[in-house]
Amino acid sequence: MRLKLPGFATTAADLGSRDPVLFVHGFPLNQTVWDPQLNELSDCARVLAFDLRGFGTAEPIAAEGIDQLADDCAAALDALRVDRPAVICGLSMGGYIAFALQRRHPARVRALILAATRAGADSDEARANRDRLAARAEAEGAGAVAEAMLPKLFAPGAYAAQPKLVAATRAMMAGASVPGVVGALRAMRDRPDSTPGLAAIGVPTLVVHGAEDQLMPVREAEIMAEGIPGAVLTVLPNAGHLLNLEQPGRFNEAVREFVEGLGG
Ligand code: MLT
User: Which residues, other chains included, contact 211 with Cβ-Cβ below 8 Å and sequence gap of 6+?
Assistant: First the structure.
């Protein structure tokens, strides 16, 4: 479905009819990263996903910051006529956006699912890496970013075991627009530290992480689960950073159990 949001047009998926769950994709991906969830979970929730500005079917424009991406999520919920607080499920960069949404639009958030993400801000070294990758995207295109990231996105064993999945993910990343990639890299570089706010998060939270995440150590998930009152931590075996693609059955089971446990 086509969606007109302030400043850009995009498309969204909207399946099922129960309480809403908005899935927010990571970098440099698009809403199709959530296909294994949307197809399987629409019986227990109204499952929603859209392409963030600059990615997938969205217009190829750059984000101005993580707060703007969070505001885009709130606008998407409005455009989709979501009339009650939604569960926000953010993958990696999507988790950074979920923290910003919780800060800026708390009334929109029924609960959080923080998948393969972290609360902390970038280190100086990580910031410098963002700038290097943005320069590379501008010089060589999104394909170069895809090649740089691919070796870290899955568990080490997945590259031989799931070659089709790895190839499809490479193609998804290479399809991102250069402005989208550069804008998102700068937005992530400049995002604030969400750690001091963890104790004030008052909604039910599931933290879910791959045991073999090569991009973000499991310790990052533990920090969030320890800091957010009542948060539940689930670590999926045989899963790397893109755990929802690599272990869709286990990921969906964790999400289903969490969403059903929230009640009506
Ligand atoms: C992502 O998977 O969304 C990004 O790699 C997160 C990051 O680079 O910090």
Answer: 155, 218, 235, 236, 237, 238, 239
**Global model pTM greater than 0.90:** yes
DSSP element (H, E) containing 167: helix 163-174
Query: How far is ligand 1, taken at its centre, from the CA of residue 241, in Å?
Result: 9
- How many whole angstroms separate alpha carbon 195 and alpha carbon 120? 6
pLDDT in tens, 59-84: 999 999 999 999 999 999 999 999 99
**Residues 7, 19: Cα–Cα separation, whole Å:** 28
**Probe ligand 1: pick from 92, 129, 220, max atoms within 8 Å of CB?**
92
Cα(256)–Cα(40) distance, rounded to whole angstroms?
10
Asked if residue 55 has its Cβ within 6 Å of ligand 1, the reply is no
